[in-house]
């Protein structure tokens, strides 16, 4: 993948252990930020993406990632960023990695 693109979006998809149909919680970190104001924590059923994330991003939401089988197993449980903003030149990019989802009732 193009290096400039990776710096622009601030992250790189690595894997989705468990494939589709994983139920997981999304935790909103800053409820006063204009991007997340009025949004509460929620649960989705979808693919849970394991990402490599640029430390320069501002994280707005995370999901607890379990200790799943695979090469990342030694990392143990982590809080994986799923929503963040990244400064790119004079613009701020908004990234969300919660895809193909449906809200769990």
Automatic annotation (TrEMBL):
Domain annotation ThuA-like: ranges: 4-89
Pfam families in UniProt: ThuA
Transmembrane segments: none
Top-level taxonomic group: Bacteria
Name of the protein this chain belongs to: Mll2313 protein
Organism of derivation: Gracilibacillus boraciitolerans JCM 21714
């Amino acid at each position: 993948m193009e290096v400039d693109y990776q710096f622009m979006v601030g992250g790189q998809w690595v894997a989705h252990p468990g494939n589709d149909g994983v139920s997981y919680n999304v935790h909103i970190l800053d409820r006063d930020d204009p991007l997340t104001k009025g949004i509460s924590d929620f649960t989705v059923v979808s693919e849970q993406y394991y990402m490599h994330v640029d430390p320069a991003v501002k994280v707005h939401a995370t999901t607890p990632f379990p200790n799943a089988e695979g090469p990342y197993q030694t990392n143990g449980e982590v809080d994986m960023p799923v929503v963040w903003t990244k400064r790119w030149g004079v613009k701020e990019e908004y990234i969300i990695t919660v895809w193909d989802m449906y809200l769990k009732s």
